[in-house]
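so the lab meeting is tmrw and i was supposed to have these ready like two days ago... anyway. pasting both below. for each one the top line is the aa sequence and the line under it is the structure tokens. i havent really looked at them closely yet so no promises
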Amino acid sequence: MTKSKEDHGIAIGIDLGTTYSCVAVWQEHHCRVEIIHNDQGNNTTSFVAFTDDERLLKIRLLPIQRTMSLDKMLWPFKVVAGTHDKPMIILNYKDEEKHFCAEEISSIVLAKMWEIAEAFLEKRVKNAVIAGLNVMRIINEPTPAAIAYGLNRRTNNCVGERKIFIFDLGGGTFDVSLLTHKGKIFQVKVTTGNGHLGGEEIDNRMVDYFVKEIKRKKKVDISGNPKALRRLKTACERSKRILSCAVATHIETYALSDGIDFCSSTTRARFEEINMDLFKECMETVDKCLTDAEMDKSSVHDVILVGGSSRIPKVQELLPGFFNGKDLVYDNQSSVGIKVYEDERTRASDNNLLGSFSLSGLPPAPHGHPFDVCFAIDENGILSVSAKEKTTGNSNKIVITNERERFIQMENALENGNLSSKLCSEDKEKISSAITKATKLLEGENQNGEIDVFENLFERVIGKFDF
């Protein structure tokens, strides 16, 4: 990648994703792959914006890969049939009408990845997997995923061939693959998936749900208002991310349409109910992959989760259940959920959950990136658990109290199939919302000043349970 001949063997790897794209380089002194961030410290969105004066890559628009009948009314550009019926994108750029094919748009993103790599390495990059550079090799997606998590070096507990299952649920597509590893050879056995299942589809489900709620509550139909739909979709995507680490959140969009403000709440239980058929479809695809490979799930040694949508708690609940409790290997994530249990059972999920919290702002790194967790008990017997990531100094903590433990038990009971089946959706949402509010009071600094509010919420919630 340098101007000299000595470095000509070094290469970068580029992942062109539906929602985000990233570039990586192998760091020999660390013996691992390092993800290179852009100048804003993030992955680069796979979207290109054309303004009157410039072309931007950091403004997120709607992806052109989605089902046209679903999203074309939201696109800020036109798509027409070109030569040999090839789709062509028409837009205005610097006061001129421009025609682009999808490959040209993708090449703009790829070129940006090239620039990011050169800025990071401070060297001229010549070897990669994009046009204009020396294409050294194009490899199937599951293989770099397995290498990135160090599975090519994990041979202690496996004699002979190792079987690896890759579950890749991204922003726009869903792919599952089964590959084998022996020695230095990775071989993809089976790959299947759905090109229109991912975070975008989940967001669209939430948008449809709230469009109906707005119509019911505000007597306004925004289904034909592209600007309002885009703003609502942004709010839904934000709430989806929050619900990966919280049981409830709020949707707030001011002056959404005709000066109407829309504020609503949603819970993780409601989110899962809206998208449950999509989650089940994911599991059916997993089963199909194993069936096509003529392999029993018990023979799989490692299960790797890739893609932002794989962080959805329901996905992380269903997948281990399918593989009979097998531990999962997660992808490069910038936050980690920490759960505090009590008891002595072998499987963590079989013990009593005392509480949980999230440590965010971490540098994306392969599975096994270390951080410190400290348990402390004060003179009153109150347990506090803290976590800290050394390189960034980011930290967070939780204090375990009797009240908090009871609310955690209530949350677990609310998600339990037996109790959940006895409650209607409205009751479950009200209970979950009350739990969230009461928990926030416990976490706040002014607990004494709001004790009456807390006790009221506590009584409202506990009345629904038999503890």
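ok protien two:
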Amino acid sequence: MDSAAPTDDAPADAAPAGEGGGRRARSAGSAKSEQTRALILETAMRLFQERGYDRTTMRAIAKEAGVSVGNAYYYFGSKEHLIQGFYDRITREHSARATPALAGRRDFGERLGTALTTWLDTAEPYHGFATQFFRNAADPSSPLSPLSEESRPARATAVSLYREVLTGSGLKIDDELAELLPELLWLLQMGVVMFWVFDRTPGCERSRRFVRRCTPLVARLVSLSRYRILRPIVRDVEGLIRDFVTPSTPSADPGGTPR
């Protein structure tokens, strides 16, 4: 019996695994599937730029990409999931762009400024519809929130980059702060993102000036944390941040109220 034709509920490019070469078929199918996913995402980003987020439908994206609507929904359950795909991609692109730019730089402030500036460079083509992304991400109940479980892979990639920013520098700081600092630097990037979203200056120059002004200040504050006289304050700040800003799992506060 002939194999069933692909339906709108499954990707048309999925290759069946059979005897004698099933592994190769699966590998080829996986590669084709990733190409289709990338095509849908690229098409969506283009249409968001051309038509705006609200005026772009999943049907229009599927038509432009040359796939069925069901196929588009197979890879991305909604337009919001397309935004999540965008988050994942831009985070990977930022890391790939920043890593070579950090090479040969040892000063912590310079490395931090480089990481933040390369984020602005990476995100620049998408600034036109950034407000739409921010509207979705700002909803704390949305899976698109930067702090959501769905955003964990992109968040981990970004935190890993800022860990590289720190470890590649010659900065000597308290061990506990060094463990927490990459997450704090990622939160700093989130602040830059918010500033950038509402920046209407040509080339987002105001955002770039903000980065140039804030990174030396952050570097000095981090450097001061190593002095013994400031250790109690550093410990208090660490505890505050761990409990309320970057808690890894839901827990109860000292009064017993669930967070």
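from a quick look at the 2nd one: The longest helix spans residues 22-51. The radius of gyration is 22 Å. will dig more after coffe
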